[in-house]
């Protein structure tokens, strides 16, 4: 099975010019596997991001590459701890938004 991106989508989302960034959240290993498969299918590399929890359970996100003017996709699966998973996703979205991503 082949994945072909329609030309109108390539133009709108700037895929061919490196304007697409794909991040995976830390929810569990299946999320990372899914993200890698999606990145492989799209022919893009995974974005570099570090998501971790402080000892006081505060979630921290460090985006380790520029997302300015790019279309960002965040892959997140929901596991047992739904609250932590959703907060992690929202913090990642906020970090991308404040880093001037074109769309999230």
TrEMBL record:
This protein's UniProt keywords: Nucleotide biosynthesis
Gene Ontology BP, a term: 5-phosphoribose 1-diphosphate biosynthetic process
Secretion signal span: none
Record has NADP as a keyword: no
Single GO cellular component term: cytoplasm
Superkingdom classification of source: Eukaryota
GO molecular function annotations of the record: ATP binding; magnesium ion binding; ribose phosphate diphosphokinase activity
Annotated ranges, domain Ribose-phosphate pyrophosphokinase N-terminal: 28-104
Primary role: Seems to play a negative regulatory role in 5-phosphoribose 1-diphosphate synthesis.
PANTHER family from the UniProt entry: PHOSPHORIBOSYL PYROPHOSPHATE SYNTHASE-ASSOCIATED PROTEIN 2 (PTHR10210:SF29), RIBOSE-PHOSPHATE DIPHOSPHOKINASE FAMILY MEMBER (PTHR10210)
Entry similarity comment: Belongs to the ribose-phosphate pyrophosphokinase family.
Annotated protein name in UniProt: Phosphoribosyl pyrophosphate synthase-associated protein 2
Species per Swiss-Prot/TrEMBL record: Pongo abelii (Sumatran orangutan)
């Amino acid at each position: 099975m082949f994945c072909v991106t329609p030309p109108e989508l390539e133009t709108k989302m700037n895929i061919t010019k490196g304007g697409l960034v794909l991040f995976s959240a830390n929810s569990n290993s299946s999320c990372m596997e899914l993200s890698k498969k999606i990145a492989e299918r799209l022919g893009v590399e995974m974005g570099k991001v570090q998501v971790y929890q402080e000892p006081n359970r505060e979630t921290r996100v460090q985006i380790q590459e520029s997302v300015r003017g790019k279309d960002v996709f965040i892959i997140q699966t929901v596991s047992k701890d739904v609250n932590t998973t959703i907060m992690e996703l929202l913090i990642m979205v906020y970090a991308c938004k404040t880093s001037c991503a074109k769309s999230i």
